[in-house]
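Ticket #4471: complex job returned nothing on first submit. Input attached below:
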Amino acid sequence: MKATNTSQTPAIPTAGEAAGATDEGPRLNIFGRLESWLLDRKRAKFGTSILRILLGASVLAIVITNFMDRKYIWGTASGWAQPYREESIWNFWLFKYFSAGDPDPLLVAKLVLLAVFGLLMVLGWRTRIVTMVTLLMFISLAALGPTSSDSADNALRIMLIYSFFTDGSQRWSLDARRRRIRNERISAEGRPGSRVTAVAPAWFGIIVHNLAVVAIGGQVIIIYLVAGLAKARGTLWRDGTAVYYPMHAENFSPWPQLNHLLVANDLMVHLISWGSVAIQVLFPLLLLNRWTRRFAVLGLIAMHAGIGIFLGLSVFSLSMVAADVIFVRDSTVESIGRWFHGRRGGRRRQPESHDGSPGDAERYDEGARHGEAAGHGEGSRDLAPDRDGAGVTHEDPAAPA
Amino acid sequence: MKKRPVVVRLVGAALTLLLLWQGLATVSYLSGSTQLANIAGKGTINAYMTPLFKQYWSVFAPDPIQDDTELLIRAKVNGSDTDWFNISRADVQRSILHHPVPSRLYLTNFALTSHYQVSAGLLPQNLQSVPKTSFIGADWLAQLKKALPGGGSAKDDAAINQFIKDETAMTSMVSSVAMARWGEAVTAVQIKIRTIPVKPYAERNNADYQVKPVEFDAGWRGAVRVPEIDLAAIKAMYGTEAAAHEGN
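Support reply: We reran it on our side without changes. The output follows.
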């Protein structure tokens, strides 16, 4: 069944159609397909939205879980760390929100504000500016605790940077709600030409968003390749017993009995050890096919859930899961949503026909060339009842998600 | 191919090149190869990556952690030595055990201990005994620096400077904890770093197998009073009422 396009703008072919995936358009070469993927509309709407939510949750978790120990880690009882602070790579005014000299009430106020910004990221309120401010505050906090920072902070910092360049407010956000209400009001008032002046042309926002999605995907692939290949050099990973050791280390055991139970079985120890290396090293190859990609993403999410629960590296895990989700196609999330609604006997959600502001239009078309808003009808295509995985492959052949 | 304005294609191409540079820089930065890291000129990629894109992903690699590292401290108070206090055990109890999202308290002291161990190990061969030597009194740091003369290779000088920095931070932290725990009459402090191996996988079911901890005892250091440090906050965490874990 073909989806009905409710767009009021001139109909344009989707990326897949343009790529020759249907009989309606000319077949494109690889360059044309890549160009279509990059310029036609914003990709990974759900992936970038989930990324924004989980990164905000990570920031919130950092503040909450360290609040009781804040004085020793960052505050009035942390002066012993001064020799390291003097050589911090972040000794720059932009990263001076937190300061070593802050009295405790001021540190508390600043941490609460950081937590509020984390919460605003979760809620998707003024997403782009909130993401940037959160990033600067977070780097400043990390600089204040030079021996309290690890790979979790690296992952969070890098993903916050890339997230800033995405439009992570397209789904499940207050920004999307505000845009929808505004567009509905404009439609109701019969002023189809009304629009808010865009800061940048729509096509520019689409390019930046899509390249940021690629950057996130690329960074994730690099992380897993580097981590996987480094492990493959280790004798314990090769003989399949590696995971046994951290599971018995006190500093990686929030729940020691649970850890010991998990690695009490030989088969389990070997499966987890070899599986962890294999899925990381093979990750780029597993992305090439829809089913192996789903397996890889689910496997990595499971791996990070395990790292978070069993080894206590929760913030690292949350940041990595946030990045992994970029590889989940929008249609997959929508299919899950439909399945979930179906199971609950609920009515299918009506399409959100107007998600994008003029500056954040989801599609670039002829109208957008002149800086006009696009994005009409996008939701109806995405929520079409026949949009299962197969349909997506046709529509979006070059999508990473 | 769809018709598009030239400016759209140009901007798309320019930003794509920027992304390719980012990818190349990331791969070069992580490659571990000096040749690749300097592909864009000596130090260029490192300078570009370090502030915002600094990263390290070889966690648990090439082999995972196979031991627990414990930091123990003791002090001289009114001429007598206190018992050892196991800071790491206190940290595990306070911030890790039964905490679904552990705080960074353990990491804070663990990383400091790790820095200290690494930099002590990197000292030139003829200076390896210095960390185990005692330097007592208000001028302990001057004595330490005198015992670590530079003037060797650039690598050795860098190792010496790094150790002095780590020793200063470690002694400052340990002194603060000692004063919070045993009072401000503390005159000197000492650390012990204990490494307890996890029982080897092959011996996991052997009840008679005993792991052999390795201990490193640094020398005594004159106590440091860190300006304006909040000893009451540290006492709430590591004071005798807040944390037990004394003894060997």
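The radius of gyration of chain B is 24 Å. Closing as resolved unless it happens again.
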